[in-house]
Amino acid sequence: FPQNHNLERALDWIFSHPEFEEDSDFVIVFIHWGTENVADPDWAQLDQAPKLAQAGADLIIGAHPHCLQGIQYYGEVPVIYSLGNFWFNSKTIDTGMVQVDITRDGISNFRFIPAIQSNCRTDLAYDAEKARILSYMQSLSKGVAIDQEGNVSKP
User: Fold this and answer.
1) What residues contact 150, with CB distance under 8 A and at least 6 apart?
2) Which residues contact 4 (CB under 8 A, 6 or more apart)?
């Protein structure tokens, strides 16, 4: 993959090399994007996510904003705009992980796992804190349902 290029040039390069999609069973894009400390995806994330899906991504996970951002689907491709800070500094902040079960047919299960970063460590969230973070993620997420265990689905 070319280094030090903008996304448009990288996508042009990917589209000119179709063998990558042919040789890949499942493509995960982990991308550094978004505006710091803003819970809503910015214009570039909203522009780039469908282009990455079209380029062959099967799952898109973002990082950089230092806060949680929502989940959305482009076709069958889930996009987690930002998982927040899993382990970054001593601030107390909501964060999370994703668990994705992949079969030959694609994603069979997709779950957001809430956590809290505090004092330079991260712990899973339980009970009321878990419910609060899941409710917050649901409020940020368009066109998805997130149940009390964090399972994500298209309604």
Assistant:
1) 111, 112, 113, 114, 130, 134
2) none
Q: Give the percent of the chain with pLDDT over 90.
A: 69
Task: Render the burial of 26-38: b for 16+ CB within 10 Å, e for the rest.
Answer: ebebebebbbeee
* Side chain identity at residue 114, one-letter code: P
pTM of the model: 0.89
Nearest CA-CA partner of 144 in 93, 87, 72, 86: 72
Supply the DSSP symbol for 58. Answer: S
Q: What are phi and psi for residue 52, nearest 5 degrees?
A: -65, -40
Integer angstrom CA distances of residue 136 from 68, 112, 139 = 9, 12, 5
Distance CA 78, CA 76 (A): 6
